[in-house]
Amino acid sequence: MAARSVIALVSVAEVVAGDLADHLERRGHDVRAARQPWEAESLLSAKGIDVVVVGDSVSQAEGRDLLRRFGGEGGPDFILICRPADLVDKVLALELGAADVVESPLNVRELAARIGGLLARRGRAAGELIVLENATVDLRSAMVMHRSGAEDQLSPGQVALLKLFLASPRKVLTRDDIIAAAPAENADAFDRSIDSRIVRLRRKLDTETITTIRGAGYRFDPPTQRVD
Fold first, then answer.
1. Could you tell me if 40 and 76 are in contact, meaning their C-beta atoms sit under 8 angstroms apart?
2. pLDDT category, 136, cuts 50, 70, 90?
């Protein structure tokens, strides 16, 4: 099993840090926190950190100092949170090598996505993202992220069922195909449970891409990507 990515939160506001840590941990990452810049010294010196998020309660000078000392080649990627008026400080941070600078107030889900992008560029395990009409599915963490901002967790059986459909797009899968490749989690559930499993999966994904082919089985039709 691949090692979990490690994200350090330095002086990130408590409410934001709690939400962000929960968001990241549910996606398989380890989160470590330092409330003050001086506490970050030992945390970052210990190595093994992939991404550092520095909160806007830290002075820009302190944030840039951490970036100079611990960033750079071989070091973690830095994301600095700044206030909207701090344009000069934002430019300075980017010139010093910050991977990203985001303005507060921020959207936790967006920040988590930016962190995921940095991890992917570092070659760390990234989520397997499936984009549907009204939601995005991260197969690695079994999370469904709806456009509304709500999230749902897929069960292991639902992940197996979705992967089966993804592996056979536009192909009709019979009940026997599904029972063989993605058996129900309940050992007592047989053929008659498949309809309800499909209904629950469709509902959780908020999708119409899984179609019932009467008398034959079920088919997954990938959604057409819209061009704006």
1. no
2. confident
Q: Please, are residues 36 and 62 in contact by the beta-carbon 8 Å criterion?
A: no
pLDDT in tens, 59-115: 878 888 888 888 877 789 999 988 776 677 788 888 888 888 888 888 888 888 888
Q: What number of other Cβ atoms are within 10 A of residue 180's Cβ? A: 11
Half-sphere exposure of 8 (CA within 13 A, CB side): 29
Give the C-alpha separation, 90 to 130, whole Å. 33
Q: Distances in Å between the alpha carbon of 14 and those of 18, 57, 62, 112?
A: 6, 11, 19, 16
Which tokens in the block code for residue 208? 């119409």
- Hey, what are 117's tokens? 């992008």
| Domains of the chain from N-terminus onward | 6-126 (3.40.50.2300), 130-220 (1.10.10.10)
The beta strand positions in the chain, using DSSP E, are 6-10, 30-34, 51-54, 77-82, 100-103, 129-131, 135-138, 143-146, 151-153, 172-173, 210-213, 217-220
Beta strand pairing status for 30-34 and 6-10?
parallel
